[in-house]
Amino acid sequence: MTEAELRQHCHTVLPGHRQPTPAATFAAMAAWCDANDIAHDTYGEGALIEQFENKIASLLGFEAAVFCITGTMTQVTALRLACQDRGSSLVALHPTSHILRHERGNHALLEHFKGLMIGDPHRPWTVDDLRAVPDALGAVQLELPMREIGGQCPSWEELNEIKRHCREHNIHLHMDGARLWEAQAGFGQPLPAICDGYDSVYVSLYKGIGGLGGAMLAGSRPFVERARAWFHRQGGNIVHRTPYVVAAAMQFDARLAAMPRYFARTQWLYALLRDFPSIAVNPAQPQANMLHLHLPVSRERAIAIRNQVAEEHGIWLFSRASHAALPGHSVVEWYVGDQLLELPDDSVRHALSLLDQGMRGDQAGNDGCMRGP
Q: What is the rounded distance in angstroms from the CA atom of residue 114 to the CA atom of residue 205?
């Protein structure tokens, strides 16, 4: 079976939200549209999309927000405009930023701006990292939380120091807030307080929210209107945004309301993981409802254990596994969503026991055979 087929075969999936079928998703969207008398937008003009843009802007404490078809287009456009305003094409980026790791050099090849890596790749960068840059920066991108290092965030005090530095040095501060909704519970602060001091914020409509795709860019009204024009120039002016907006809007309030419960479940999970010392957790304490599990087996062996557990027990432990810095080690990500929230405590413990048993089998030199309790 393929990985997708193997996951579908499982009766229990640990990370993330439930994934309804396209038929179920489209049926729910149709019912919501019928109940709310939804009409299509036309090239971004229409009651639904305009109301949703205003809702996001108000929620984050900004004048305006605009829908964009992808986060990739959203962020490089925002940073391009920021650099134009500040007269410098240099943008400070963390080594693990999405722009550097996953966008195939679009910021450089399309001449949006020049990226400058700052900070340590294993922790959030600090205001001291920013002060150490001798060049005039046009913009700084700060991700909350930082997905590639387990959902880490700077402390509240450090975040405010970064905001103050950027304001005093006329540097545009942009947030990669793809998972901002997840960071709020960890900070314990209202969204406008987190966003205050940022000049622009990007949020995703599909990651934690569970929509079909799309993003929003929030900022001042003039900045947002310029971004809207640039999205058009880059081919983002699709005729109907309605499917993406509906898929997000119909569950948006419920998803946000659930974020504190996801975070509380993450705190519970950290306590449970103390019973499995072979599994190291990053960050050391929960900062959002996501975490990385560092496993004492190779990436290939981790995937083999996952697949064996899926085939024999119908439990899907994780999706992506990555190589770790140490040979013979690997890293997997858990997003704590509906699946882990609703799974009985004993079932979570059983799943972790199967993972631990598979790894212990490797360390003992046997064939890694796993048996239920």
A: 27
C-alpha distances in angstroms, 52 versus 45, 77, 146, 299, 309? 12, 21, 26, 42, 42
Question: Taking a C-beta distance cutoff of 8 angstroms, is the pair 207, 337 a contact?
Answer: no
pLDDT in tens, 5-61: 999 999 999 999 998 999 999 999 999 999 999 999 999 999 999 999 999 999 999
User: Considering the chain, what is the average pLDDT of its residues?
Assistant: 95
* pLDDT the model gives residue 21: 94
pTM over 0.90: yes
Contacts with 311 (C-beta within 8 Å, 6 or more apart), sequence order: 6, 9
Strands 330-335 and 321-323: antiparallel
Rg (CA), the chain: 22
Q: Which segments of the chain does DSSP mark as H helices, in order?
A: 3-9, 22-36, 47-60, 71-86, 98-102, 106-109, 127-131, 156-168, 180-187, 191-195, 221-233, 242-273, 299-313, 338-342, 345-363
d(CA 358, CA 302): 9
What percentage of the chain's residues is helix, strand, coil (to nearest 5)? 50, 15, 35
Give me 330's structure tokens. Answer: 């690997």
Residue 283: name the closest of 220, 331, 236 by CA: 331
CB atoms under 10 Å from CB of 30, counted, come to 12
Name every residue whose Cβ is closer than 8 Å to that of residue 275 and which is 6 or more positions away in sequence.
Answer: 349
Residue 365 binned pLDDT confidence (cut-offs 50, 70, 90): low
* Kind of pairing between the strands at 200-204 and 139-143: unpaired
CA 275, CA 273: separation in Å to the nearest integer?
A: 5
